[in-house]
Amino acid sequence: MPEAIGKLQLKSSFKATQTIKPLYTGGKVAISPDENLLITTIGDSIEVTDLQNGKKVLHLSGDSELITTFAITPDGNYIVTSSRSLVVKIWDFKTGQIKKSFKAHEAPIIVMDIDPTSSLVATGSADSTVKVWDIEGGFCTHNFRGHGGIISALKFHLENNRWTLVSGADDCNIRIWDLQERKCIAVLKSHVSVIRGLDMSNDGRFLISGSRDKVVNVWDFDKKILLKTFPIFETIETLGVLQLHTTIKNMEEDFELFYTGGDKGIIRIWDIKTGKLIQTQEPEKNTKHVISDIIYLRKSNILTAITSNQSILFYQITSGLKRVKQIVGYNEEVIDLTYVGKDETHLAIATNTEQINLYNIKIWSIDVDNENSDDSQVNCLGVCIGHTAAIGTVAFSKKSLKFCLTGSQDRTIKYWDLSHLDRSRSDENFRPKVLYTNKAHDKDINSIAVAPNDKIFATGSQDKSVKIWSVNDGKLLGTCSGHKRGVWSVQFSPVDQTIVTSSGDKTIKIWSTTNFSCLKTFEGHTNTVLKASFLTYGTQLISCGSDGLLKLWTIKSNECITTLDNHTEKIWALTVRKDENVVASGGADSLINLWEDCTVEEMEKRVREEEEQILKEQNLANYLLKKDYQNAITLAMSLNQPFRLLNLFTEILDNRAEDISITGSESIDKIIATLSKEDIEKMLQYIRDWNTNAKHFRTAQTMLHAILKTYSSNELLEINGIKE
């Protein structure tokens, strides 16, 4: 046992220092004009996040109805939102205050666009109408009817002081509206499915439209005629035109280009004149998503893709559409997590989706992909195939990567030989050999743990049993029976020959691995205990469960030291950093919390508070001795000592010297007159309690009389709880 244990400090306090919260749950996304702030929808609210450090800058609370769309003005002063309540709100983007609020349509607004001067916002609704609004005044300037379906795309165009608005709908038509003449001046018909993207060429001569019919049309905007149709071979969800002279990798000529995104989940860049494919983003491995929108960041030459799995992906145009940043907006249900990397600088998160998300803890929710970093390279070294049902648990050897063990819903455990694994290269075709397979349990196997010496391993199952096995030959050594419901987790002690298990019977048990008897049982969770881990060199435990709580236990005393609460649903995942100073938890509420040991800080804080308390007590005694009532009353109230105050007021009344004073002391009358609202509230609570005892009613009534004489009824009504 290490020397440090001789000076072992048991942990007693943890605090949540970092939290990954849902950043984007679907819908519209925008980036501020200066390209520094990310604006996302979370249910009925808008969240503004700093792209550099991932910190929340602003939160715009909704009206309990889901946000359908929003837009930010090009000057960055306002943000316009709409929800299923049919209300449009215009917010001051700097202060977060609502400037205007009004009902706009008879059905939810689906799309918005703001003109280049930041003075007008166009709204397209499911009621088939298009309306234009003055942002400063909040009034409607135009109301256009003509589409025969839901409005799906909008684009302002200003040229030679002539304002036009282009709209597309699921009636497959594109309409061009003249804002001066207040009428439709053209209907463009060619698409055979809903219009999803509209944009203008840089010189304003061409209108580019994209549809779910898998083609892009280029129109002569002046003549209102179709010039070209380019087959894209994917359902288009978004498109846009790149600015002139954009540098494209391996392209020498200067073309005018546009980009598309859709159901293939990749960004592609095309030549407007020829329809030639200029550049394609490399497909993401092991991902299946649709690109629902693309945001073009002109200053940094980045295309930001918004995907159907709530990810926000940043691609550098000048480097061949290489992904340079990724933000995971929503983690779904966090099933498991673990620290990875040489210095445990990253967290690997498993959710109820098919991807594993890797977070850099230093910058938290923003994952920067640096190809020169070893931590960014995650390669498949081999695939273990053999189970006939879902695999519920995996455990690797502790000393070196010699083997791994897997447990499955097919009720078997398998030992996989990893001694021939080549860690220097990726090889998805490598198949580790199974050295043995055992029918281990009668129900699903939920957990496997390998002992620190790699000689034995333990399994926990829904059949309520825990079994200990030999690693070398897979021989059953013993069974630990005692849980009344399924076992969810198993872990070996780092120092003793014991294991800890957690179960659906709301208990945690410690078992001997030599005679398989139950040594300790911990009770305190109010629901299933899903995970338990050793802490502090095996002298403490930390557990989490379906009650949404983490609990810290001391093994010797069987005592729950503290309960941590920062989740709203069951906590599936729990992992401890090697230095045991930080614990990470994740749950069904999509939250991931980092809990940092603050035991020493709390102890130092308590010592300081005790010293301050002793000093104040001494000062109070000195004030009373000197009959310095003013300071004595102030200090007694700050110390929250109503009994001392009662004795002080009673003594003054008993030795009443000033008939003109309400309380018997003019200095005390002055103190009463200068009390803050919080102190008046506290004093009234003291008086209420004093008044319940006949011995103290005279003092209580006198002090109440003093307060009522000093303060008006309006002043007293402002005090919290006064009416109660």
Strand content: 35-45%
The CATH H-level homologous superfamily of the domain at 346-372 and 381-597: YVTN repeat-like/Quinoprotein amine dehydrogenase
Strand arrangement across the biggest beta sheet: 26-27-28-29-33
Which consecutive residue ranges, at least 5 long each, have pLDDT under 50? 1-6, 365-375
**Helix-strand category:** mainly beta
Q: The biggest beta sheet, please? A: 5 strands, antiparallel
Shape from CA axes? flat
CATH architecture of the domain at 346-372 and 381-597: 7 Propeller
Tally the helices: 7
Distance between the termini: 60 Å
Q: How many E-type strands?
A: 52
* Assigned CATH class of the domain at 346-372 and 381-597: Mainly Beta
Please state the CA-atom Rg, rounded to the nearest Å.
34 Å
Task: Find the CATH topology of the domain at 346-372 and 381-597.
Answer: Methylamine Dehydrogenase, Chain H
Helical content (DSSP H or I, runs of 4+) = 10-25%
Mean pLDDT: 89
Secondary structure blueprint with pairings:
Blueprint (H helix, E strand, L loop, with lengths): L13 E7 L8 E3 L5 E6 L2 E6 L5 E5 L6 E6 L5 E6 L3 E6 L5 E6 L5 E6 L5 E6 L3 E6 L5 E6 L5 E9 L2 E8 L3 E6 L4 E7 L5 E6 L5 E6 L3 E6 L4 E7 L4 E6 L15 E6 L5 E4 L5 E4 L10 E7 L4 E6 L3 E6 L5 E7 L5 E7 L5 E6 L4 E5 L5 E3 L22 E6 L6 E6 L3 E6 L15 E7 L5 E6 L5 E6 L4 E5 L5 E5 L6 E6 L5 E6 L3 E6 L5 E6 L5 E7 L4 E6 L4 E5 L4 E6 L6 E6 L5 E6 L4 E6 L1 H28 L2 H10 L3 H13 L11 H8 L3 H14 L6 H14 L2 H5 L7
Antiparallel strand pairs: 1-52, 2-3, 3-4, 4-5, 6-7, 7-8, 8-9, 10-11, 11-12, 12-13, 14-15, 15-16, 16-17, 18-19, 19-20, 20-21, 22-23, 23-24, 24-25, 26-27, 27-28, 28-29, 29-33, 30-31, 31-32, 34-35, 35-36, 36-37, 38-39, 39-40, 40-41, 42-43, 43-44, 44-45, 46-47, 47-48, 48-49, 50-51, 51-52
